[in-house]
Amino acid sequence: MARLYLFVFCFLIIDCQSVKKANAEFEKKIPIQQLQDDIDQTYISLKRFHPELYWYISEKELEKKFDSLKSTISEPLNKQEFYFKLAPVIAQIREGHLRLRIPQKQYTKAETKVFDKKTPLFGQYTYRISDEKMIVYKPTVDSEKKLLPGTEILEINGVKVIDLIKKYRSVMTSDAYNQTYYKYALSEAFFNYYTAEFGLLSEANLKIKFKNQISDFVLKRVDKEEIKKQKYTPSKEIKKIYDFDARTNSFNRSMRFAVADSSVAYMKIKTFSDTGSSKFYKKTFKKIKEAKSKYLILDIRNNLGGSLDEINNLYSYLTTENYTLVKMPEMTFENAAIHRNFFYNLPTTSKIISAPAYPFFIAGNRFLSGKNKEGKAIFKESAAKESKSKKDAFQGKIYVLVNGSSFSASSVISAKLKHDKRAIIVGEETGGANDGTVAGFNNTIELTNSKLNLPIGLLFIQPNIEPLGQKRGVMPDVEVDADFYNVSQGKDLQLEWILNDIKKKSD
Q1: How far apart are CA 411 and CA 419, in angstroms?
Q2: SMART domains of this UniProt entry (predicted)?
């Protein structure tokens, strides 16, 4: 027992020293020349690995932006100060997957343990951000509710929210010239940026506005033990098939019949995680076929994407013909795939354990790399090969619900369904581009001096369609405003439009 106590004591000392050293580096000012070298390294890395660097910005314009950035570095900066200089330039490339990671202060296990016993400070509510305003949308925990829906937050600890919105918006980007993505992304990510910049807080002093009355409010963390929340514990099989998310106490994948006679099937996919997806689609589409449903509503709003394999499998249940989902992904050079992350961010022990598998990783990526007839470097993706329709494929009419937070794989399958005239797209322009995206897997570059991390997608993935060249998201066939900012709204206007349209066709 004495040895155990000694081990724990030594571990805590090492942890504290490690965190102390990391935080000293976090605050350390980096010389001007080293910052400029990191800017050069960023641009060189992007030119080497990013397959469509000049899709939405010309080479001349991007080069000018990097040169201009270097000229503004007139004094030493710490890591985070440098981040807010470099990230807005990278955002101008307009590739939604390409985001410099914001650095933040580290905490010891003892410090984080204290916070783990309480709810996230700002996570007690969801928010809507638009027109440089932050509105409280609804509470997320069943605790004493003091901030009412519709409350505007004007200041946080003396800092104006409008200034923070402008600052964080500058480092974010969607695909192409889409604008619908930002209201969702900023609403979700705002307090991630805030916490990274200002650290973990026990409480926050807010200046709020409700029904034209301005007042002060102290937001405090709530002990998790005080929160009464009924937990659902599904079986292991159900967890996997429907992809249970313990954090939100809900399923990422679900299906129900939207009307009493089962003629309308409603399928909600929150993320294309691929976890248990094959069993889910096999089971679900068999059930839809047995019910003889005439309509299918596929809801991929707020689905930020995920697995190409999953959407390829899903598509096989949405068509009765053989198809090819995407074109063969392109890379900047042959074998660029061997630069994808393998050891990145692994602790030393895990790196040692994983080392024997590395030669097989290299061999596998070399085998899957090649060149097409035009001489372009490609990666042999299974979703780029012809696939067959499933026997229980849905043959009725399909509606797809999308919004500005339908991104990446969600945009790929939406673009394909729309191009093939297999579905009616309803909602608003997607956050992901209609003509493709740069993603797949990353090579994360660590900048030499600032140690900032920049994940660069290695694959240019295009849906197998005739590109529109509009540099926009997937445009809905029927645009329906979701009334995003109406906090008192209890209706789903977009889903309601589809159900009304079906009713008209059935009458």
Answers
A1: 12
A2: TSPc
- In three-state secondary structure terms, 224 is helix
319 HSE (CA, 13 A, CB side): 23
pLDDT of residue 232: 62
Architecture (CATH level 2) of domain 118-223: Roll (2.30)
Of the pLDDT bands very low, low, confident and very high (cuts 50, 70, 90), residue 11 is: very low
4 — pLDDT class (breaks 50, 70, 90)? very low
Q: What is the CA radius of gyration of the chain?
A: 25
Backbone φ, ψ for residue 10 (5° rounding)? -65, -40
Neighbouring residues of 236: CB distance < 8 A, sequence distance ≥ 6: none
**Distance, CA of 177 to CA of 192 (rounded, Å):** 24
DSSP H/E element including 130: strand 125-130
β-partners of residue 377 are: 371
pLDDT tens, position by position, 176-199: 999 899 999 999 999 999 999 999
CB burial readout 23-50, b (16+ within 10 A) else e: eeeeeeebeeebbebbbebbbeebeebb
Q: How confident is the model at residue 405 (pLDDT cuts 50, 70, 90)?
A: very high
**Domain assignments of the chain as residue spans, ordered by start:** 11-91, 118-223, 236-329+381-506
Terminal Cα distance for the chain, rounded: 77
- Decide: 412 and 307 in contact? Cβ < 8 Å: no
Structure token digits, residue 157: 């600890």
What's the confidence (pLDDT) of residue 9?
43
Q: What is the mean pLDDT of residues 120-137?
A: 92
Measured in whole angstroms, the distance separating CA 258 from the mean position of its chain's CA atoms is 28
Q: Is the dihedral of CA 290, 291, 292, 296 positive or negative?
A: negative
Cα–Cα distance between 139 and 119 in angstroms, integer?
Answer: 12
Per-residue tokens: 496: 């309601």
Copy the structure tokens of residue 210.
């409700």
Q: What is the C-alpha separation between 433 and 177, in angstroms, rounded? A: 9
- Residue 397 DSSP SS3: strand
**Per-residue pLDDT at 143:** 59
Burial class (CB in 10 A: 0-12, 13-18, 19+), 102: buried
Q: State pTM to two decimals.
A: 0.90
Between 349 and 462, the higher pLDDT residue: 462
CATH code of the domain occupying 236-329+381-506: 3.90.226.10
